[in-house]
């Protein structure tokens, strides 16, 4: 288990959950991943929870904001891409045909945050590291392992991220005539871009690693979650499942 100290520009580096019930989410994901937690105060007097695998920080579970709560928004996992200059990425996003949804804003000394949206949709966090580099583990059990954008405009999204981060791209033709695109940094595949099903809005599908896919899926069901995509009978490395927590947060699992 090797701790990550750095993420290159263009790499997904962090994921967090916004939910209406932090305590319930802690119970659920603690059973799925074996996470331990440290509770910290929010500026409005509530609390959020840092999630750990052993002593390695891997995620945060945070309360929804007042607008999300009032709208009855379901739980939402967010993905963040590492950047050396969040302000520059935010400016470039608009010129590249996307939208700036929030920021840039410094989060104390931990880093600089923005949320952008590529053509076709799909809220994407941008993170310029300060004291917080991102997940201390990657592609390990209990930690962020992969992310892919499902979008009705995949080629526009690919071009958008290429313009912002200089990603190289590999295309994998699919049986339905579409293509699965992977964004690459220094020769390594770091994220996917996939055509969304007709009528579906753009969204990020986020994957966390597990050592035993069936065991993790069974734990999710026992904790009150729903299996949206069940694991195969005999999972192996790379096998997938998708779960939904009791507050509606959707997360995919991959056996690592």
What's a quick, concise take on this entry?
This protein has 256 residues and is of the alpha+beta class. Helices cover 20% and strands 43% of the residues. The chain has helices at 22-33, 66-71, 86-95, 154-165, 213-222, and strands at residues 12-19, 36-41, 47-53, 56-63, 76-82, 99-107, 111-117, 124-129, 144-151, 168-173, 179-185, 188-195, 203-210, 226-229, 240-244, 250-255.
**Main beta-sheet annotation:** 8 strands, mixed
Rg, nearest Å: 17 Å
In one word, what is the shape? globular
Q: Give the SSE order as H and E letters.
A: EHEEEHEHEEEEHEEEEHEEE
Please tell me the overall pLDDT: 95
What is the terminal-to-terminal distance?
Answer: 12 Å
Helical run tally: 5
Strand content: 35-45%
Q: What is the oligomeric state here?
A: single chain
**Percentage of residues assigned to helices:** 10-25%
Strand order of the largest sheet: 2-3-4-1-5-8-7-6
Structural category: alpha+beta
List unreliable stretches of 5+ residues. none
Q: How many distinct beta strands?
A: 16
């Amino acid at each position: 288990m090797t701790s990550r100290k750095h993420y290159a520009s263009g790499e997904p580096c962090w994921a967090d959950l916004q939910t209406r019930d932090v305590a319930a989410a802690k119970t659920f994901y603690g059973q799925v991943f074996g996470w331990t937690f440290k509770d910290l105060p929010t500026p409005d007097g509530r609390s959020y929870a840092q999630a750990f695998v052993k002593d390695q920080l891997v995620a945060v579970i945070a309360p929804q904001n007042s607008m999300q709560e009032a709208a009855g928004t379901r739980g939402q996992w967010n993905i963040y891409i590492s950047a050396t200059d969040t302000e520059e990425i935010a400016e470039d996003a608009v010129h590249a045909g996307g939208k700036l949804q929030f920021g840039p804003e410094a989060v104390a000394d931990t880093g600089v945050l923005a949320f952008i949206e590529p053509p076709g949709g799909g809220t994407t966090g941008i993170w310029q590291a300060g004291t917080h580099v991102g997940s201390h583990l990657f592609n390990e059990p209990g930690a962020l392992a992969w992310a892919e954008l499902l979008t009705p405009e995949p080629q526009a999204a690919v071009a958008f991220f290429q313009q912002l981060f200089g990603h190289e791209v590999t295309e994998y033709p699919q049986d339905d005539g579409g293509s699965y695109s992977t964004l690459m940094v220094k020769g390594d595949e770091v994220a996917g871009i996939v055509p969304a099903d007709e009528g579906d809005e753009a969204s990020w599908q986020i994957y966390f690693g597990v050592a035993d896919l069936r065991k993790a899926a069974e734990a999710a069901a026992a904790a009150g979650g729903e299996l949206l995509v069940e694991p195969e009978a005999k999972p192996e490395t790379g096998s997938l499942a998708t779960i939904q927590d009791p507050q509606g947060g959707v997360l995919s699992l991959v056996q690592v």
